[in-house]
Design brief:
Blueprint lengths: L2 H39 L5 E6 L9 E10 L9 E5 H4 L2 E7 L4 E5 L2 E5 L3 H4 L2 E10 L6 E7 L5 E7 L1
Antiparallel strand pairs: 1-2, 2-7, 3-6, 3-8, 4-7, 5-6, 8-9
Amino acid sequence: MNQAHKSASARRIILITALVTFLVTSMAWLGIGGLGYYIMVREEPGFHVTVDHPDTVAVGEEFDLSVLVESRTGKALNLASIDFQDDLLGGFEVVSADPKPGSKTRMFNLTTYYLAPSARSASRYEFKLRLRAKQTGFSSGDIDCCTPLGNFVTTHTSI
């Protein structure tokens, strides 16, 4: 076997060894990261959600859609945001939000209200949307109350 052939064979072995080492190391780090994420967020949030609103409203009528989040343990809620599915809010105009949220975004069929920091330290938090009915019909959809780590409790409601 000549020297050039030995050199090419050695390079191939080194390249394969490096690739296998990279893949095994990457998979190990992904596994460790996944396990860490699971440990941090596996528990269901320690709160429950109650939604209150009138059963029926007339076109043009204003009403409150109230979302009450209460701690099951008396500890701080650590609540970051409340998501309203667009199907729920589609037939209504949002007149106001109380307390005023830190910010609001709309994407992926959800309107998200990011709450003020006081929502994280409270053991009970009530968020109200003042709505005005734009049309006749039936609206239903989900409301998600979310923690900063992405845990959430979903409640379905119909108006």
